[in-house]
Amino acid sequence: MASTGTTLFLTLHIAPEKLDEFFELFRPLVEKVVAEPECRSFHVYKDPENPGTITIVEHWNATVEWLMNVQIKKEYYKENFEKTEPMFVKPREVRILQPLGPPYDVTKDGNSYGYKQGVVTWS
Fold first, then answer.
1. Domain extent at residue 33
2. Bridge-partner residues for 45, per DSSP?
3. Where are the alpha helices (DSSP H) in 1-123?
4. Is pLDDT at 118 greater than 90 in this prediction?
5. pLDDT in tens, 73-99
6. SS3 helix, strand, coil % of the chain, rounded to 5?
7. Residue 60 sits in a domain of what CATH number?
């Protein structure tokens, strides 16, 4: 089975009372990441049983090496982490996986979770 890029799973544990402030600072980072040509998709999930726990899923058309040696070193991450890490109640958890690709990687039209024509929309 051929790999079709790299997927990053990042779980953050934010102090619940800091979530609004976190998302104000996080939104500009999301916009910069999504604008990267290698970024195929970007999704944020909340844990309904643990306020303050969010998981970010990023799909990249790139290797793990590129992700770690090029993408993660961009200045906008450092700027964001300096402002948001004090809001963490425990360290971030990172997993990097490689998708199996077709037939096990399926996206149905219309399931954009707020993304329309490559533009991030916020409700």
1. 6-99
2. 55
3. 19-35, 64-69, 75-84
4. no
5. 999 999 999 999 999 999 999 999 988
6. 35, 30, 35
7. 3.30.70.100
Phi, psi (5° rounding) for residue 38?
Answer: -80, -10
Full-model pTM: 0.82
Number of domains in the chain: 1
Rounded to an integer, what distance in angstroms lies between the CA atom of residue 11 and that of residue 45? Answer: 9
For the record, the structure tokens of 100 come out as 């199996």
pLDDT at 111: 52
Strand, coil or helix: what is 49? coil
The DSSP code for 63 is -
In a domain, 31, yes or no: yes
| 120 in any annotated domain | no
Q: Is the residue at 116 inside a domain?
A: no
Single-letter residue type at 68: M
122 domain residue, yes or no? no
